[in-house]
């Protein structure tokens, strides 16, 4: 099964007071301290789609599991059966984001919304968040589009530093990631945020250090 968390779904935000002026360096090196979250770079929509597809398979298996937290149970099975395959999957497909929020994180990044935090939450003690959560800083144009998708997918938003997007379960967050992917043309039609300029080059420099 997939755990659901007893959280009050609210949508508290103000587009006019969103943080603006992020640079490529801010996004690359981190503009706030959130548990060593690493920049996802400028992933393509195809990479986001691949992540969401793989994530959907995990969530389907998790729902069929008898374990209280099926997601963790499925991940443990994979790790025990093939630790190298597990590491490669987490590194290259999920970018070391938790399964259940990785798809949304990559979809937001593909939509050119800066992300700065993600946690799937869970029933153990090694997760930070009380419910599945992704931190994001959209520009005002993307924020308006994202707000509609958040509401349509039964997720919540709390504006702090940028926005914390959250849900009662990773299924809701995955659904929102799918919705962002479907809306790719609408996001692509918007002007690119300023922080995208030089981002790929900065990330390449960091990887060479």
What report would you give on this structure?
- This protein is an alpha+beta fold and about 210 residues long.
- Helices cover about 45% and strands about 10% of the residues.
- The chain contains nine helices and five strands.
- It has helices spanning about 25-30, 45-65, 70-80, 85-95, 100-110, 140-150, 170-180, 185-190, 200-209; strands spanning about 10, 115-120, 135, 155-160, 165.
- It has a five-stranded mixed beta sheet, covered by helices on one side.
- A hairpin with a 4-residue loop joins strand 4 (about 155-160) and strand 5 (about 165).
- Helix 2 packs antiparallel against helix 5 (about 100-110) and helix 5 runs parallel beside helix 7 (about 170-180).
- The longest helix is centred in the first third of the chain and has 20 residues, at about 45-65.
- The radius of gyration is 16 Å and the shape is globular.
- The mean pLDDT is about 90.
Write the layout of secondary structure elements.
Layout: E1 11-12, H1 24-29, H2 45-64, H3 70-81, H4 83-93, H5 102-110, E2 114-119, E3 133-137, H6 140-152, E4 156-158, E5 163-166, H7 170-182, H8 184-188, H9 199-208
Parallel strand pairs: 1-4
Antiparallel strand pairs: 2-3, 3-5, 4-5
List its traits.
9 helices; 10% strand; 5-stranded mixed sheet
Report the order of strands and helices: EHHHHHEEHEEHHH
Helix content: 40-55%
Runs in which pLDDT lies below 50 for 5 or more consecutive residues are none
Number of helices: 9
Strand order of the largest sheet: 1-4-5-3-2
How many strand segments?
5
Rounded mean pLDDT score: 89
The radius of gyration over CA amounts to 16 Å
Write down the overall geometry.
globular
């Amino acid at each position: 099964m997939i755990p659901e968390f007893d959280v009050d779904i609210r949508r508290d935000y103000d587009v006019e007071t969103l943080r603006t002026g992020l640079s490529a360096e801010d996004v690359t090196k981190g503009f706030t301290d959130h548990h060593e979250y690493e920049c996802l770079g400028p992933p393509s929509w195809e990479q986001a789609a691949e992540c969401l597809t793989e994530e959907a398979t995990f969530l389907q298996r998790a729902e069929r599991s008898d374990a209280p937290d099926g997601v963790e149970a499925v991940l443990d099975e994979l790790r025990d059966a093939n630790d190298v395959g597990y590491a490669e999957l987490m590194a290259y497909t999920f970018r070391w984001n938790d399964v259940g929020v990785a798809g949304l994180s990559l979809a937001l990044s593909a939509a050119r919304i800066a992300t700065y935090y993600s946690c799937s939450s869970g029933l153990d003690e090694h997760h930070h968040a009380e419910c599945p959560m992704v931190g994001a800083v959209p520009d005002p144009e993307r924020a308006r589009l994202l707000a509609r998708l958040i509401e349509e997918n039964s997720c919540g938003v709390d504006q702090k530093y940028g926005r914390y997007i959250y849900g009662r379960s990773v299924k809701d967050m995955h659904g929102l990631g799918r919705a962002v992917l479907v809306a790719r043309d609408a996001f692509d039609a918007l002007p690119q945020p300023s922080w995208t300029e030089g981002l790929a080059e900065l990330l390449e420099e960091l990887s060479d250090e």
